[in-house]
Amino acid sequence: MSRFTVPIGPQHPLLKEPLSFQLTLEGEEVVDSVIRLGYVHRGIERLSEKRTYIQNVHLVERVCGICSHVHTTTYCMGVESLAGVTVPVRGLYLRTFFCELERIHSHLLWLGVLAKNLGFDTVFMYAWRDREIVLDIMEELSGGRVSHAANVIGGVRVDINDSQRKTMTVSLKSLSQKITDLRNIVEHETNFHARTRDIGTLTAEQIRQYCIVGPIARASNVDVDMRRDVPYNLYEKFDFSVITRSEGDVWARTTLRIQEAQESIKICLQILDSLPPGAVAVRAKRRVPPGEVICRSEAPRGELLYYIQSDGSDRPARIKIRTPTLPSLAILPDLLRGINMADVSAVVSGVDLCIACVDR
Amino acid sequence: MNEIELIITQMKSLFLHQILEVRFLPLHETVVRIKPTTLRNLVAWLLEHSGFHHLSTITGLDNGQQIELFYHFWNGQGLSLHTELSYEFPFMDTITDLIPGASFYEREVFEMLGVRFSDSQQNQPLLLPDDWDGQHFPLRAKEKETKKQGEQ
Questions:
Q1: Sign of the C-alpha dihedral computed for residues A83, A89, A92 and A98 taken in this order
Q2: Considering the entire predicted model, what is its pTM?
Q3: Which of A44, A56, A331, A340 is the most exposed place for a label (fewest CB within 10 A)?
Q4: So where are chain B's domains?
Q5: Is B125 an 8 Å CB contact of chain A?
Q6: Chain A residue set in contact with B, beta carbons under 8 Å
Q7: Shortest Cα–Cα distance, A148 to chain B (Å)
Q8: Rg for chain B (alpha carbons), in Å?
């Protein structure tokens, strides 16, 4: 059978961000694929060396348009560790609150994109409608729906009053019910099963070899979560479960993310219930003592790492950002090989690519 | 003796003169500076004899005198292998046969700093544009200096 090549991207309805695939097909079967990155490479690591530590808070927030807060959280944690700054407990609670809201927002956004790519527009609209609850909360607190600028070095610049706590608790409880409804649809809708069961399956061994992290790893029974394994932002104080599944396919990743969103709501409600009084930030010096720090956190898509090196000035000597999706891209050619062309959208959506994060 | 100290003691006894320095950083991170020629053997040993099989990323930086590489591993706590390469000989053994996930990390280090890996497949651009000349590496100190003068 003759082979032919189908280009997908860099601009394509399947992709929400620019990325290029060259798929080689034999009939309907994908036999090879080549990925090309870099369409949104902004040179942020290089640029960060020319900006001060304070300016870089706003720069790293723009690495990603979805998980922007966790980037600033990880960066600030690293700089605070180098500078010997202790963030007040209330500030840490609020950081965690935003991190978990962002996880819910990211998982619902992803569910909508997956459903849309599978032709399941009802779930797409429900998921994105429900996501608005989270975006409204973040907007009320910070003024921004996506870029919140909530973090500063030394704490946060946002606060919650008692009235907001009450209304947000009601909103989050209603969101929890809506997410349960979404889970029911995903678990019982036969068409959804047909498009996602045994599709794009990854074994725990493949996860290990390709250094894959986050929900994809947990959906293949690799029990890893930085929030529990290297507690930061007082995560050890909150009661939540790290969800794992054993199937490893797109369906497992879907249900796992929905369950994770529920766990995040659980953490948010605990924060609203037990928010301690006090300051939300302390003032930090502009200059940071010489040294180096490696800082890890759990972004919505998995492990995020910042390596920061300081030479004692008010600008970093080097910032390296490790985003969770880069290794997931490395395994995509293996995942796509041998599948039907019609399943490409499910497999590509299933790994929850964040191209802005990958390109930086 | 905790787990990381035990592993470092074993590493020191097996790779006696190859381990140059051990630094303990905050946030449960340890950096071990090693000779570049031993990196591949040390990674193979880590994979076989310790739980450090997750490679988070490879950080490359140019400090003005030489190129430094950090291989960030993780197993409940962080262990980074730190090595230095000279400008005259910026070559490194690939570890993609041991850890296939290292492929994109190595390609990024190649294009940003010009470190060439023993597997030629790794010496291809990942993020830079198609018309990149393959000669100017954006994170090299010399390149930064040239850019700075140009901006002025």
A1: negative
A2: 0.90
A3: A340
A4: 16-144
A5: yes
A6: 37-38, 41, 43, 45-46, 49, 77, 81, 208-213, 224, 229-230, 232, 292-296, 303, 305, 307, 309, 317-318, 320, 322, 326-327, 329-331, 359-360
A7: 26
A8: 16
Is-contact A179 A265, C-beta < 8 A?
Answer: yes
Instruction: Please state, in angstroms and rounded to a whole number, the distance separating the CA atoms of residues B56 and A326.
Output: 10
Q: Does domain A41-324 have CATH number 3.40.50.2000?
A: no
Q: Which chain B residues touch A290 with a CB distance below 8 Å?
A: none
CATH fold for the domain made of B16-144? Beta Polymerase; domain 2 (3.30.460)
Contacts of A321 (CB under 8 A, 6+ apart): A44, A45, A60, A63, A71, A304, A305, A306, A360
What is the share, in percent, of chain A residues with pLDDT greater than 90? 42
User: Is the CB of residue B77 less than 8 Å away from at least one CB of chain A?
Assistant: yes
Q: Which helix (H) or strand (E) holds A5?
A: strand A3-8
A10 preceded by cis ω (within 30°)? Answer: yes
ipTM of the complex: 0.88
Rounded to the nearest angstrom, the minimum Cα separation between A270 and chain B is 25
CA distance B128 to chain A (A): 6
DSSP letter assigned to residue A349: H
Q: What gap in Å lies between CA A305 and CA B57, rounded to an integer? A: 8
Angle ∠(A160,A163,A168) on CA atoms, nearest 5:
70
CA distance B126 to B110: 9
Q: Does B25 touch chain A (CB under 8 A)?
A: yes
Question: Are A308 and A318 spatial neighbours (Cβ–Cβ below 8 Å)?
Answer: yes
CA angle B102, B68, A230 (to 5 degrees): 60
- CA of A82 vs chain B CAs: smallest distance (Å): 9
**Which chain B residues touch A296 with a CB distance below 8 Å?**
27, 56, 74, 78
* Residues in contact with A229: Cβ distance below 8 Å, sequence separation at least 6, in sequence order: B76
Say whether A292 and B101 touch across the interface (CB within 8 A): no
Residue B78, H or E segment: strand B78-85
Return the domain boundaries, chain A. Answer: 41-324
DSSP, res B122: G
Q: What is the pLDDT of residues A261-319, one digit of tens each?
A: 999 999 999 999 999 998 998 888 888 899 999 999 999 999 999 999 998 888 998 89
Q: What would the mean pLDDT of A123-143 be, rounded to a whole number?
A: 92
